Amino acid sequence: MPTAEKLKPNDYKTGREPIWCPGCGDFGALNAFYQALSELEVEPHMLALFSGIGCSSRLPYFVNGYCHHGVHGRALPAAMGAKLSNPELTVVVTGGDGDGFSIGTGHVPHIVRRNPDITYIMLDNEIYGLTKGQIAPTSPVGMTTSSTPLGSLEDPLNPVALLIACNASFVARGFSGDPKGLKDLFVKAISHPGFAFVDVLSPCPTFNMDMTYQSLRPKVSPLPEDHDSSDRVAAFARALEPVVYTGVFYHRRESIPYEKRHASLRAKQVEYGGQPDLAALIRKFR
Ligand SMILES: Cc1ncc(C[n+]2csc(CCOP(=O)(O)OP(=O)(O)O)c2C)c(N)n1
Ligand code: SF4
Description:
alpha/beta; Rossmann fold; eight-stranded mixed sheet; 10 helices; 8 strands; binds thiamine diphosphate; binds iron/sulfur cluster
């Protein structure tokens, strides 16, 4: 519900200064997020922001709302619980590619299958920043890091292709070097009634010199104007191209969020005689 007086991006600051390294891509993403919250007139008491562990997972400290900095890789289930408890909340998850696609990967396809109205913002720096630069699931093959001094032997995951393959109802990619474009993507993702994923290319100038603003700028390009974001097959093909496209790859038009379906299930339960006899149910398993 809109506030009487629209909050400005700065009103979403907590007063805690981010402790990220100078030049960290996460600053651009945070600023774009403040702007999106202001544009959408999200009231801080209606914002529930969840993260795991990592430099990127510190983002909730700097945002005015109900924020939860939890356990490594487990932000998605915590966010799901909040959304089911109070579907009116704007629920957002932030975190890194390590948090989301190493220890946390198992949660991704299952939350996608449920399609709750949650926005998942992944700050993708292709490295583990917080733990001082080990290989991440998105790191390119051959990359030398503290854990792969002779070069990585593993192929990287493609976050956008993975989420389209899982059938997420909104999948986008942005770049922290393009804060205006990123703000627009956050606005669209948060407005989408279902699970929305935004892969944010967010350089780590301290530990990943293979993915810098300079190296990304010539590779990054907006999706072609004729890209049909309602066509999942076309979106998947775009995600596999060597061009690093930004924009909305896929956007399911008819998206019914899980919490709505859950509410109709509850209504059905009442129709069938209310709450089940929990004590009798537990006795069955003794
Ligand atoms: C259960 C558990 N395992 C491992 C760690 C160590 N750990 C902390 S953050 C992290 C990865 C961080 O990488 P990413 O999520 O990409 O975030 P970044 O710091 O790059 O933003 C790891 C492995 C931990 N905190 N908890
Ligand atoms: S280590 Fe990398 S990801 Fe972490 S704050 Fe520094 S620049 Fe950002």
